[in-house]
Every structure is written in C-alpha cells, then in structure tokens.
C-alpha cells in the first residue's frame, strides 16, 4: 500500500512536512503544493530531512512554484515538478492520499 | 477513478478552494469521475450567490457552479456550517424563519453524512484546507 502525502504548508510556518516525513514509509510519495513548495528548495532548514528520506519520492506543484517565483534551479535534488494533471496521476497511482492540512 | 473532494476554506481567503477547483478540473479533463464536492467549515462560503468579485478577478463561486453544470457535479454544502455562516436555501429559509436565500446555482445543503458516504463510495477522498 503506497501513500501520497500532500503538504500545503511552508516548513517555516508549520511542521507538517517534518511530521509527514516521520510517517512516510519507503515507496510513498510526498507532493508539496501551495506554500508547501517552499519545502522543495535547496539549502533550507528542511533540505537535509528531505534528502535523508530514503525511498520516498518528492514532487512539487509547478504552478505553485511559479506563483512564488521559485525557478527549477532553486529546487533541491530529486524533486520532480508536476502540473495539476500530474497531481491527479499521483492520487491515482498511490493507494491512499493523506492530506497534511 | 472515482474521486470525492472536501473543501474546508472559503474563497479569496486561502488557496484551498483554488487548488481544489484546479484539481477537480484536471481530474475531469483526464476522464475521472468526481462523485461529490463537499464544502465544510468556512468552505460553505463557496456556495453563496451574493459575491461580486471585480471583473478582472476569478469568480470562485460561479466557477464552481459552471464546472458543476458542465459535469453534473454534486456540490454539497454542510448544513451545520452553513447555518452558522448564513448560507441559506429555500428549505432552510422556511425552517429557520429567514427572509432570504442565497445558495448559489448547482449547490445543495445537506448533512455530514454526505461526507462520510463520499469517503466510503469514492476511491480517493481529496482534502483541501488550511
């Protein structure tokens, strides 16, 4: 059973990304969207935790990155950018969706 | 795939309803089914027909109504949350002795059981909120 975790909070506002990583098992996916996309940037306070999450795939929602002026070169390694269609596909491909609102 | 969507935030306050709308649109475009959109907490404010946003801004309420009409969506507003926030349909107007109603086109007011049912009958329940 794979889980898609959706995180919509900036890691500088709430701990939902770190909390989610504590639960995310190998084979699961984490999608950062809305202010959650700040968690996808390289060199920030949560970047190490993201890099250390082995077997977890990370995604960031492109339109929300664009709305916040975060270009792809600012993203941490291993973050895949998806659009809304990609968001839908992630929800379909994983067995469970857990929203860390 | 059969989706259900829960919206917990009102329009123009938080991105949740925009995200939910964009997700719903993308899911429908990909040929998936959305069996219900449930508006809960401040999310019920998505269902008032009294909003008049500036013409160069998106009209969040009408956008839901139009998507609902185009795809025959079941747009459900939580009754208890609606009563607290003044979202009223014909039945609620009579039951509570109000002199007006403001439920937007395509929305209906019902109970929390509709959310539970959506959770059971859909394959994925997508929650958008703060």
TrEMBL record, chain A:
Tell me one Pfam family matched here: DsrH
One Gene Ontology term of the molecular function aspect: transferase activity
GO annotation, biological process: tRNA wobble position uridine thiolation
Q: What is this protein called?
A: Sulfurtransferase complex subunit TusB
Q: Which PANTHER family match?
A: PROTEIN TUSB
GO CC annotations, alphabetized: sulfurtransferase complex
Automatic annotation (TrEMBL), chain B:
Transmembrane ranges, per UniProt, are none
Do you know which Pfam families this protein is assigned to? DsrE
Where is it predominantly found?
cytoplasm
Annotated GO CC locations: sulfurtransferase complex
**From the Swiss-Prot or TrEMBL record, what is one GO molecular function term?**
sulfurtransferase activity
- Keyword tRNA processing included in the entry's annotation: no
Family indicated by similarity: Belongs to the DsrE/TusD family.
Output this protein's name: Sulfurtransferase complex subunit TusD
This chain's source organism reads endosymbiont of Escarpia spicata
Q: Which gene encodes it?
A: tusD
């Amino acid at each position: 059973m794979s889980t898609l975790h959706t995180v919509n909070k900036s890691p500088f506002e709430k701990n939902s990304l770190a909390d989610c990583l504590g639960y995310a098992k190998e084979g699961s996916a984490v999608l950062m969207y809305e202010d959650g996309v700040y968690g996808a940037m390289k060199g920030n306070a949560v970047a190490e935790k993201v890099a250390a999450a082995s077997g977890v795939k990370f995604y960031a929602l492109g339109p929300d990155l664009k709305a916040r002026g975060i270009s792809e070169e600012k993203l941490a390694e291993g973050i895949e950018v998806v659009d809304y269609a990609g968001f839908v596909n992630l929800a379909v491909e994983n067995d469970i969706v857990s929203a860390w609102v | 795939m059969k989706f259900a969507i829960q919206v917990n935030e009102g329009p123009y306050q938080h991105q949740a309803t925009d995200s939910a709308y964009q997700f719903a649109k993308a899911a429908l475009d990909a040929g998936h089914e959305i069996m219900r959109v449930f508006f809960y907490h401040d999310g019920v404010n998505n269902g008032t027909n009294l909003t008049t946003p500036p013409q160069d801004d998106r009209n969040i309420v009408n956008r839901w109504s139009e998507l609902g009409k185009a795809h025959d969506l079941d747009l459900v507003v939580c009754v208890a949350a609606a009563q607290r926030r003044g979202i009223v349909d014909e039945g609620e107007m009579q039951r509570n002795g109000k002199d007006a109603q403001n439920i937007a086109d395509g929305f209906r007011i019902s109970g929390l059981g509709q959310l539970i049912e959506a959770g059971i009958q859909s394959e994925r329940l997508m929650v958008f909120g703060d």
